[in-house]
Amino acid sequence: MDTESAAKIIVKWSGKEYAIDVTDNDSISDLKNAIEKETGVRSHRQKLLNLKLKGKTPDDDCKISLLKLKPNFKLMMMGSLEEDIAEVNTTPTDLPPVINDLDIEDEEVAIENREVYLAKVEKRVKDYKIKMLSEPRPNKKLLVLDIDYTLFDHRSVAETGAELMRPYLHEFLTSAYEDYDIVIWSATGMKWIEEKMKLLGVTTNPNYKILFYLDSLAMISVHTPKYGLLDVKPLGVIWGKFEQYSSKNTIMFDDIRRNFIMNPRNGLRIRPFRQAHLNRDTDKELLHLTKYLKNLAKYCDDFGSVNHRNWEKYKPHRRN
């Protein structure tokens, strides 16, 4: 007589992880019901992103055993609670400003050139393996982009990835690709970067290509007197692997300024894209930054010489 094999699936949703117990004989429908009990998200609203059977999303009656999942398989879910969906139709009148950064101006001094951190960068250059998605192109600048709250609101109410995507994303990337090689760098794991890029349609868009992805393992930790230990994204990891990119032709967009504390003159803090259901129709950050990138590429010989905090007032010195 066959015994029923038990397994545990880790569901990632809204910034948290939930352990769900299933058996081989359970169906996807049973899994969704179990997820509903843990998260409160109704089964018909759940979108299980990386659950595949022969490259396709399995039907609800598909048995878990057919998926051949590894123990503690991590499943990424999108879905909204009923009360959150109800709130979408009500626009708050007194939204406070969102602060998602540290004031690190005083901390930038002496951080980027300290030997202990430069040694960490060198170790990443040596040990971190990059999976190339396309090839570097001659005479192109480099644009490094964060994902969460920069290109994608990963916590707001939505039923599809398109609803969480920052407005003008594909137009922005298409325009940037004319002058820049593009790298995606997120403080998450590589698996989730790949899933989010698929969800946003970046992976398959014919109008541009991504050079490669970097995940949290390419980051380093630095210690600041005021804020303690911080994980940051040193551009030197890229510069050490690709001689054609440097501080003169690289710019990084991130909603958290401390992520480029090692390269303060090459970082631009983008306004975070939050509450997508309220801001989708008014957010034009990428539209405006498209023009800024075009001006930098055309008129600026050294990106590190520009104060990117004043990007909206930037007036290029046109070459004769």
TrEMBL record:
Location relative to the cell: Nucleus
**What is one GO cellular-component annotation here?**
nucleus
Q: Which UniProt keywords apply?
A: Hydrolase, Magnesium, Metal-binding, Nucleus, Protein phosphatase
Q: Which GO terms describe its molecular function?
A: metal ion binding; protein serine/threonine phosphatase activity
EC number(s) on record? 3.1.3.16
The coenzyme or cofactor needed here is: Mg(2+)
Primary subcellular site in the record, as a coarse category: nucleus
Q: Output the Pfam families linked to this UniProt entry.
A: NIF (PF03031), ubiquitin (PF00240)
Q: Where is the FCP1 homology domain?
A: 136-296
Q: Which reaction does it catalyse?
A: O-phospho-L-seryl-[protein] + H2O = L-seryl-[protein] + phosphate; O-phospho-L-threonyl-[protein] + H2O = L-threonyl-[protein] + phosphate
What is the protein's given name?
Ubiquitin-like domain-containing CTD phosphatase 1
Organism whose genome encodes this protein: Agrilus planipennis
